[in-house]
């Protein structure tokens, strides 16, 4: 901020002096002011270099954030504006999990005690909560590639006269209401076979929203 204007002032001042005109005095003044500005800028740079710098790499976007002291608690990333999880000065590892309802990618750390999907605001189970049962549930939401075909099995039709579930199964299977109601009397029942795992996860979630129960397994 001061070195560049100082260099320009010296250049203009030297130009005025070289012409040896009435502007020579102004040229001398400009040269002196330019030198002062440059010296001031050098002093400021020296002082800034003495300030300690603690870089913190954002685990979400890999942006490097600089702080004047070691952060001991969570800080906000300048680039993605997410809160960087820090515990006792240690940057925590961030895990990825997809919402089983809308397939939106969410993030969490070992400090997280629960997770709500950023897109649909539904609760997403994570491995940090609820012990082994939640960890098993978490497996249905984690990011991974699985090309195997799966079967979706309806195990419980929920309360009697569950019209919401009947409507959902109608749309899912392209059947009429009487056919769906007859199917609900013959549980457990394979609804779909040979479908991708992600589709099975989403359909299972839709069924459970309407008080039914379903499971999916690898096709035999």
Distinctive features:
220 residues; alpha+beta; three-stranded antiparallel sheet; single chain; two-stranded antiparallel sheet; Ribosomal Protein L30, Chain: A; rod-shaped
Question: SSE layout and pairings?
Answer:
Layout: H1 3-19, H2 24-50, E1 54-57, E2 64-67, E3 75-76, E4 83-84, E5 86-87, E6 90-91, E7 94-98, E8 105-109, H3 131-138, E9 150-156, H4 163-173, H5 177-183, E10 189-195, H6 197-209, E11 213-218
Antiparallel strand pairs: 1-2, 3-4, 5-6, 7-8, 9-10, 9-11
Task: Write up this protein.
- The protein is an alpha+beta fold.
- The protein has 3 domains: 3-50, no CATH class; 55-138, no CATH class; 150-218, Ribosomal Protein L30, Chain: A (2-Layer Sandwich).
- Helix content is 38%, strand content 21%.
- It has helices spanning 3-19, 24-50, 131-138, 163-173, 177-183, 197-209; strands at residues 54-57, 64-67, 75-76, 83-84, 86-87, 90-91, 94-98, 105-109, 150-156, 189-195, 213-218.
- The strands form 5 sheets. Strands 10-9-11 form a 3-stranded antiparallel β-sheet, with helices on one face. Strands 1-2 form a two-stranded antiparallel sheet. Strands 3-4 form a two-stranded antiparallel ribbon.
- A hairpin with a 6-residue loop joins strand 1 and strand 2.
- Helix 1 packs antiparallel against helix 2.
- The N and C termini lie far apart (71 Å).
- 17% of the residues are buried.
- Residues 129-144 have low confidence and may be disordered.
């Amino acid at each position: 901020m001061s070195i560049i204007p100082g260099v320009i002032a010296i250049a203009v001042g030297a130009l005025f002096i070289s012409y040896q005109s009435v502007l020579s005095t102004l040229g001398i003044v400009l040269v002196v002011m330019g030198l002062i500005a440059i010296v001031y800028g050098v002093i400021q740079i020296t002082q800034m270099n003495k300030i300690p710098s603690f870089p913190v790499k954002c685990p979400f976007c890999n942006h490097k954030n600089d702080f004047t002291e070691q952060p001991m608690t969570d800080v906000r990333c300048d680039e993605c504006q997410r809160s960087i999880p820090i515990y006792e000065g240690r940057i925590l590892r961030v895990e990825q999990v997809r919402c089983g309802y809308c397939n939106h990618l969410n993030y969490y750390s070992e400090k997280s005690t629960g997770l709500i999907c950023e897109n649909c605001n539904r609760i997403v189970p994570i491995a940090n909560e609820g012990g082994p049962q939640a960890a098993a549930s978490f497996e249905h939401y984690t990011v991974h590639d699985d090309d195997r075909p799966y079967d979706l099995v309806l195990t419980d039709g929920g309360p009697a006269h569950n019209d919401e579930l009947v409507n959902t199964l109608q749309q899912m299977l392209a059947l009429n209401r009487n056919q769906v109601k007859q199917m609900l009397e013959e549980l457990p029942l394979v609804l779909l076979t040979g479908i991708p795992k992600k589709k099975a996860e989403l359909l299972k979630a839709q069924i459970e929203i309407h008080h039914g129960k379903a499971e999916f397994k690898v096709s035999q």
